[in-house]
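I hope you will forgive my troubling you with a question about protein structure. The matter concerns a single protein, recorded as an amino acid sequence and a row of backbone structure tokens. Please examine both parts with care and let me know of anything in them that strikes you as inconsistent. Here, with my thanks, is the record as I have it:
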Amino acid sequence: MLASAKLGGMLPRQADAFLILARAELHREPPSPELALAQARQAGHLFHLVGDARQESDALALAALLLTRLGRFEEAIENATLAVRLAESQPDGAHTAVAYHHLGLATHARDSDYARRALLRSIALAQQHCGGEAASVQPRLQLLLGELYRLEQCRQSGQPARIDPIAFDMLQALRQILASGTEAPALTPQPGGAQLAALLPLIETGLGSFLASDDTLPAGLAPLQDATRTPTDPIRPESLRGLAAWIFARRALERGQLAQAQACIAELLDVTLPRADQRLVQTAHHLHITLLEQQGRHDEALAAFRRLRADQLLQDRENMASRERTATLRMAWRQQSRALAELRTSSRQFERLSLEDPLTGLANRRQVERVAATLLQRLRDEREQAAPWCLVMIDIDRFKQINDQHSHVIGDEVLRAMARLLRHVLRQHDLAARLAGDEFVLILPDTDENLARQVVERLRGEICRHDWGAIAPGLAVSASLGLAGACAEDSLATLMQRSDLLMYADKARRDRPPLPSSV
């Protein structure tokens, strides 16, 4: 698809292809977040170029997810915030739900309260626009996973790890959704409804590890599930192994089961390192440091902490370099956008010039053919219900004589003056055009012959009253006009022929009686 889109130069198809590739990369084992990120960014840029704000929002949200996995949280927040703004500018609330979901995911590492508010907004939008309660499974799960990360950070920093009561509300809702058997639609590539039966015991086990002895569970929740083995994920087993290893490692540490904790931490590192999920990688290292301390290996714990800190500093430098590369890329995209805008402006100018008579500024024959074809097709399609319209041929009398007696410069000025008179008399939706030489044509949409005759007689009066002597002393100008009403059987050629015959009949009359009718 991408190759054919590039060959065809079709930006929307190229954008779709890059977004599909980025999503597909997430389902590979192991995935390459960097490759998927590059594809998502390219998709977002192309959607921006073609003005598709909805799809650009989806691409930015996906980029935010990938940046979060890579530990580049500031960039993730920027992308997710822009995704929300773009989605909110569109009428489709489903895309806004997705954008808020990824904003919550991106901000968990920096501001858990803000992340919670974003996810609650995603839940409300998903319920309203995406299929009811079941559609809120993914943001609810993400809120619970974010709570587990927050509790883990509290434990690592020695702060009290008290479970936010809203986590119990989420658990209660997810239990009810699971019990209902309702299929939960996926909002994002994150684990969701299809894995709810496997995820829920894990999350409850994780929360149970942080329950204090004086914590009281809400009615209906007690007891929390306590998973005893790594669950089998029917869609992507690898996607849950890291989460399971983390939760079982934390539970083992809380219970003093150090051998089991060591095995789970080893599995956690084995799973997360190839997947480049930086939050889980850092969690694994902190758990390892905690294990070393509980084993009394304090020097090794200190050395491990220093290595982790050095790795974090290196990650910060890499993130800064990535920001610089992104800025350079965006500047290149900005220049490309400017060039494309200039190209579009030039294209519109060329199109306008191709439809305009350069001497008078009126429409040319090509524009007449385009407008007449549309109106004639409407007559054929709608028949009796179609609005009537008329065509008027205009020929300046003895124009060759004007050129011969006064020069072609004066003749050109006469043509320009006639064009100004046409613009002055005609209504906004009428079309005046110069066909060639001294021939003009009027197209009068939504006009029957009686009304068209009034327009044409007004034009004839304007021509008679115009001060042609201001152009050249002694200059007198008149014009012959032929009016014909269009019918469904007409082509432009037959309509112009009827109008042309009536124009020549008008020219033959010396006393200029009222305009003859085509009827």
In short: The CA atoms of residues 163 and 211 lie 7 Å apart. The first helix runs from residue 2 to 8. Strands lie at 390-396, 431-436, 439-444, 479-485. The chain has a mean pLDDT of 83.
